[in-house]
Design goal:
The chain is of the alpha/beta class and 571 residues long. The chain has 24 helices and 18 strands. The radius of gyration is 25 Å and the shape is globular.
Length: 571
C-alpha cells in the first residue's frame, strides 16, 4: 500500500480516535486514504479539520488530558510546528503525549522515480534539518523518516515513545515522497505490549510509612496528581486514614483533591514552615523559591513519576526520599500497608484530634470566602469574587471547568467547588492562548457533560478565537465561555506597581502594557459563528445569563458570556 494508507492503518491499529490537523499540500496521500476508509465504513480515526495549528495541538492536548489517550496531529511543513511551538512546549512540560507529524520533501523534484511535491518546497517550505531539528527543544523526541522502507516502523515507534513514561509530544518529519511510495505493512500485527516492573523497594516503603504514620504535623502539596483518577482516589484514602491536610499549589493543573473535603486547605507557604513531614505528590514547584521552603530539618517525601525533572533547566528542591513510579501504584501500596500497620492502630486518637482541628479550619476558611463574596454582591462593575460565587451556584456538578486566567486562578480554584476527579483542568505551563482549544478537546472527549472555559480577556486575545469558534460551530461542540473581562492585563499592572510603588506610572496613572482599550464587544464574535453571546454589566443579570448559557449549550449552541469586572486583584 502507499505510505499514506500505511500511516492511517498504523493509527487505526494504535487505537487513535482523532487526527487533529491544520494541514498543507503534502497530505493528499492521507486524505485519500481517509476517503477510502470512510467509504468502507471505518469509524476511526476521525478527522478534525482545525483552522489553526495552535488549535490543532492544544485541542489534541485537551482531549488527551481528559481521555488519557494520545492522538495524532498533522501539520504543514516547518511552518506548522513553528506556529504551534508554544503549545508543543506546554504539552512537553505538562507530559501530554501526542504524535505530531509535519511534512517534508527529500528530493525536490530531482528524482524522476519519485512523486514531485511541487516547486514551493524548494522555494519556501523547507529548512535545514527539517521540522524535527527546528522544534527539538519543544518536544520529548523528534526525528525524520529517512526512507520509505522505515516509514512503518518509525511511525509505530513514535507512538510508543510518546506514551513511554514520562510521556510527552513527539515530532516526526514525514516526507511527501515516502507517503506516495509503496511500503509493506504486514497483515499480522504484533501489539508490542510492554509490561513494566511496578515493584517498589520494600525498605523505602517502610521508611515512608514510618514518616507518615508517626507525623505530628504532616501536609501534602500537589499539582499534577489529578491526571490519574486512581491516584486521586488513593491520595484521598491515605489522607483520610492519617488526617493529613492537602494543599494544591497556586498552579494546580488538575483537580487533585475534592475541594469541599474537610482536609482540603488553601495554599499557604507559611504552613510549610511548621510542617513535618512534607509529602510532595506530583508537584513540580511545591513552593517558590526552591531554596525557601520547609525548615532544614523537615523531612520531605516525594511521590512522582519523574525525578529530578530533566525537562527543566533548574529544579532545586531537595528531598529525603523519592518514590519514583506511577503515583497511583505508590499510593496504593502505602494505603495497603498503612491499614495493617501497628503504628496506624496506635495513633488513631491523634489522627482524630488532628482531623477535628483541620476540619474546623477548613470550615472557617470556606465561610470567610462566601461571606466576603456576599459583601460585594451589588458592586458595579461586578466583583470577581461575586462572579466566582455565582459560577459556583450555576455550574453543574458533572461539568468540566477549563481555566485560563492569571490573576483569578486561585480565586477560581478555591471558590468554585469541584469534587469529582477530572472536573477541572488549567493552563499551567507555556504562554497564554490554550483555554478555548483545551475546552474544545475536553468537550470532544466528554460530549455528554457541560464544559466551561473560564478565560481572562487578556488570555482571550492570545487564543485563535475565530478558528476555535468556527470549529465549535462546525463540529457541534457547545462549550460555554465565560470571559473574565477586566479590560486590562492586570497581572502586568500589578508587577509595575509592585516594583515601582512610588514611580511615575503610579503618579501619573499611565500604565503601559496594561489597558485593553477600547473594550471590544466580544459577544458579537459568538453571533458571527452561530453561537449565543451576551454581555453582563449588572450583578443581577449574572445568574440568569449563566443559566441561559447552560440552556443554549444543552441545545447544541456554544455560548460566550462577557462579564465586565472591576479591577480587584486577589493577593
Amino acid at each position: 500500500m502507499r505510505g499514506g494508507q500505511a500511516l492511517l492503518k498504523i493509527m487505526e491499529r494504535a487505537g487513535i480516535d482523532y487526527i487533529f490537523s491544520s494541514p498543507g499540500s503534502e497530505w493528499p496521500p492521507v486524505w485519500d486514504a481517509l476517503a477510502e476508509a470512510a467509504s468502507q465504513g471505518a469509524s476511526k480515526p476521525k478527522y478534525i479539520n482545525c483552522r489553526h495549528e495552535a488549535l490543532a495541538v492544544a485541542m489534541a492536548a485537551g482531549y488527551t488530558k481528559v481521555s488519557g489517550k494520545p492522538q495524532v496531529v498533522l501539520l504543514h511543513a516547518s511552518v506548522g510546528p513553528l506556529n504551534a511551538a508554544m503549545f508543543l512546549r506546554a504539552a512537553y512540560q505538562e507530559r501530554v503525549p501526542m504524535v505530531v507529524c509535519a511534512g517534508e520533501s527529500v528530493a525536490y523534484g530531482e528524482d524522476g522515480r519519485l512523486a514531485d511535491p511541487g516547486g514551493q518546497w524548494l522555494h519556501s517550505l523547507s529548512d535545514i534539518g527539517g521540522p524535527a531539528d527546528l522544534l527539538k527543544r519543544c518536544v520529548k523526541w523528534s526525528d525524520r523518516i529517512s526512507s520509505s522502507s522505515i516509514l512503518v516502523s518509525t511511525m509505530e515507534r513514535a507512538i510508543r515513545i510518546a506514551e513511554e513514561p514520562p510521556p510527552g509530544p513527539v515530532l516526526l518529519g514525514v516526507p511527501f515522497e515516502w507517503m506516495m511510495e509503496e511500503v509493506c505493512l504486514s497483515d499480522f500485527h504484533r501489539s508490542n505490549q510492554a509490561v513494566r516492573a511496578l515493584e517498589l523497594d520494600e525498605r523505602a516503603l517502610e521508611e515512608a510509612l514510618g514518616l507518615l504514620a508517626d507525623a505530628k504535623n504532616p501536609i501534602v502539596v500537589t499539582e499534577y496528581l489529578g491526571r490519574d483518577i486512581k491516584a486521586v482516589e488513593r491520595l484521598v484514602e491515605l489522607c483520610e486514614l492519617l488526617a493529613i491536610p492537602v494543599m494544591e499549589s497556586h498552579g494546580a493543573a488538575f483537580l487533585t483533591s475534592p475541594r469541599t473535603h474537610p482536609l482540603y486547605l488553601s495554599y499557604d507557604p507559611a504552613r510549610l514552615g511548621a510542617a513535618d513531614p512534607v509529602l510532595i505528590a506530583e508537584a513540580v514547584s511545591p513552593w517558590y523559591p526552591a531554596g525557601k521552603g520547609p525548615k532544614s530539618d523537615t523531612r520531605v517525601l516525594l511521590i512522582a513519576e519523574e525525578f529530578p525533572n530533566s525537562r527543566l533547566p533548574f529544579w532545586g528542591y531537595e528531598v529525603d526520599l523519592a518514590l519514583i513510579a506511577r503515583p497511583a501504584v505508590t499510593l496504593t501500596r502505602l494505603v495497603e500497608r498503612m491499614r495493617g500497620s501497628k503504628r496506624f492502630a496506635g495513633n488513631r486518637a491523634a489522627y482524630q484530634e488532628r482531623l477535628a482541628r483541620i476540619q474546623q479550619e477548613h470550615g472557617h476558611w470556606k465561610s470567610a470566602l462566601r461571606d466576603e463574596a456576599e459583601k460585594h454582591a451589588d458592586e458595579v462593575p461586578i466583583n470577581p469574587r461575586w462572579l466566582c460565587c455565582v459560577l459556583d451556584r450555576c455550574i453543574p456538578a458533572d461539568a468540566m471547568i477549563v481555566q485560563e486566567t492569571t490573576i483569578y486562578r486561585t480565586l477560581i480554584q478555591e471558590m468554585i467547588r469541584r469534587t469529582r476527579p477530572m472536573s477541572y483542568i488549567a493552563r499551567l505551563t507555556g504562554g497564554l492562548g490554550v483555554g478555548l482549544s483545551y475546552a474544545l478537546g475536553a468537550k470532544l472527549a466528554i460530549k455528554d457533560r457541560p464544559v466551561f472555559a473560564l478565560v481572562g480577556d487578556g488570555a482571550f486575545h492570545y487564543n485563535p478565537v475565530m478558528a476555535c469558534l468556527g470549529l465549535a460551530q462546525e463540529y457541534g461542540l457547545p462549550i460555554i465561555i465565560v470571559l473574565f473581562d477586566n479590560q486590562r492585563y492586570l497581572s502586568m499592572e500589578r508587577s509595575l506597581l509592585k516594583y515601582f510603588p512610588d514611580g511615575s506610572a503610579k503618579r501619573t496613572g499611565i500604565h503601559y502594557g496594561g489597558p485593553i482599550s477600547p473594550n471590544p464587544d466580544y459577544r458579537l464574535l459568538a453571533h458571527a459563528y452561530g453561537g449565543h453571546g451576551v454581555r453582563v454589566v449588572e450583578p443581577k443579570e449574572l445568574q440568569p445569563a449563566i443559566e441561559q448559557a447552560v440552556e443554549h449549550a444543552a441545545h447544541g449552541k456554544f455560548a460566550l458570556v462577557d462579564v465586565i469586572l472591576s479591577d480587584y486583584a486577589p493577593r
